[in-house]
Specification:
- With 449 residues, the protein is mainly beta.
- It has helices at 17-31, 220-224, 369-375; strands at residues 5-6, 35-38, 50-52, 56-58, 62-67, 70-73, 82-84, 92-93, 98-106, 110-112, 139-155, 162-178, 189-191, 196-206, 212-216, 227-228, 234-245, 250-256, 262-272, 284-288, 306-316, 320-324, 328-340, 344-347, 353-367, 384-387, 391-410, 414-431, 438-441, 444-447.
- Strand 1 (5-6), helix 1 (17-31) and strand 2 (35-38) form a beta-alpha-beta unit.
- The radius of gyration is 23 Å and the shape is elongated.
Length: 449
């Protein structure tokens, strides 16, 4: 048995690079080593690139080593770059779950979407483009367990770079993104329904939409990817060290609708790395929920569907640090720091939500009025620690430091907010006229209108 099968073995050459790599995978299965090496130099074409015109299907118990290689999707092609062998099985069950798949980069590895093919979510089914946008997801995994993806740079993804549906026991580590030129919805990493027990670590770069999105919804892709016998919940996800520019969207997004539950999500260290040169900044470092009825097929999320979210070490100059747009319960956010153009530390854009047992512990509000003025195209936004219109329930904010803000609370409507151990100076007002609930600051009670 060999150590691995190299894609530069002449007897494996096909008419295309995709065919050659697929032949190498078949040879690795036959040999028993179940390991394939894609080197930097392509002997078949005498070039330092591998052009992918058809998705490489990876079977169980297979390791693909990317050795300083550059792989680019062929122009005009509508297909993934990698996917598991049974991703498009006629019927997916626990019995035909793919497992033990690794895509591991060695040195400098780049997977590129190349020239965009024109297929967007809004053009699916139009102009002869009958396929769904799922074919434009660079790495697609449906019904997979024990998956590893490490040490890869992704550029110019045509849609989402990596998508998971009904996957578990997954490790994603040292992944970098550069999504440019921009087309809509260039997410970095997506976890859809049925994903649990994930470890995601060291995620960097510039995504063209959410850098990491955990979205438990019952859309078309999720329904077509249904796995008989598996739960739809997203849970037990650990995220560490996300330093990214999500291009107007969110560094980490968590949402659920239609009765699907998302719970036990643990996040440590999220930083918005956008610069003034980009002229844009993200909606929030961490977003919980979605905008009103967006994505709803059955019903909006209710209290208990989104719960037990733990996040710490959040740094942003985006619009908000932590943004709530749906019901959320039993969650804690620690060491939240804002700077520059951030105008709200804890907020929502007003689609209505209820909070229960939510605590923010350790908040430094360091935004700058001049930065906010030149950062907002549509007019100046006043600063506030909490801005929660159309929100009910209770929120506890502890250990706050701020020097200079227009409002402590703005538009909090019927949300009762308690501040403990606050060191704040130059506060314009405790609340504006829209704040009707009780606001308690260091034991002193302010009753809204």
């Amino acid at each position: 048995m060999k150590e691995y099968i190299s894609c530069n073995q002449r007897e494996l050459f096909a008419e295309t690079d995709s065919g050659t790599i697929q032949n190498a995978i078949a040879a690795a299965v036959a040999d028993g080593c179940r390991k394939v090496l894609i080197p930097r130099y392509n002997l078949r074409t005498d070039k330092t690139e591998w052009r992918i015109d058809k998705a490489i299907e990876v079977p169980c118990n297979m390791t693909v080593l990317l050795d300083n290689c550059y792989m680019v999707q062929e122009t005009g092609v509508y297909d993934n770059m990698f996917r598991n062998a049974n991703a498009y099985a006629e019927k997916r069950t626990l019995e035909n779950e793919d497992h033990d798949i690794s895509i591991l980069g060695i040195g400098n590895v780049c997977l590129s979407g190349g020239v965009h093919n024109g297929l967007l979510e809004r053009t699916c089914g139009k102009n002869g483009l009958q396929m769904g946008s799922v074919v434009n997801q660079m790495l697609l995994w449906i019904n997979v367990r024990d998956l590893r993806i490490e040490n890869i740079h992704f550029e110019h993804q045509r849609h989402w770079a990596i998508n998971h549906i009904y996957c578990h026991n997954v490790k994603l580590k040292n992944l970098d993104f550069f999504a440019y030129p921009h087309v809509p919805n260039m997410d970095g990493i997506d976890l859809r329904v049925g994903c649990h027990d994930f470890e995601i670590e060291n995620i960097t770069g510039k995504s063209g939409d959410d850098t990491i999105a955990m979205t438990a919804i019952l859309g078309g892709t999720e329904s077509r990817g249904y796995v008989e016998g598996k739960s739809t919940d997203i849970c037990n996800v650990k995220i560490r060290n996300v330093l990214s520019d999500p291009f107007r969207m969110l560094n980490v997004r968590v949402l659920t609708q239609d009765g699907v539950q998302v719970h036990d999500i643990d996040v440590d260290t999220v930083m918005d790395t956008s610069t003034w040169e980009s002229k844009v900044f993200c909606k929030a470092a961490l977003g919980l929920g979605t905008q009103g009825a967006l994505y709803v097929k059955v019903c909006r999320a209710k209290l208990g569907d989104l719960s037990r979210i733990t996040a710490r070490n959040i740094y942003t100059r985006g619009s908000m640090a932590v943004r709530f747009d749906d019901a959320c319960a039993d969650s804690t956010f620690t060491n939240v720091k804002t700077f520059s153009t951030c105008f709200t530390a804890i907020g929502t854009v007003g689609f209505g939500c209820v909070l229960k047992n939510i605590t923010v512990d350790g908040l430094y509000y360091g935004s700058n009025k001049t930065d906010r003025q030149r950062g907002w195209v549509d007019g100046y936004q006043p600063s506030a620690i909490v801005r929660m219109p159309q929100t009910t329930g209770e929120l506890l904010v502890k250990n706050v430091y701020s020097d200079g803000m227009e409002y402590l609370c703005q538009g909090t409507d019927e949300l009762n907010v308690t501040f403990e151990n606050c060191d704040m100076t130059n506060v314009g007002a405790i609340a504006d006229q829209r704040s009707k609930a009780t606001i308690t600051v260091n034991g002193e009670v302010y009753q809204g209108d």
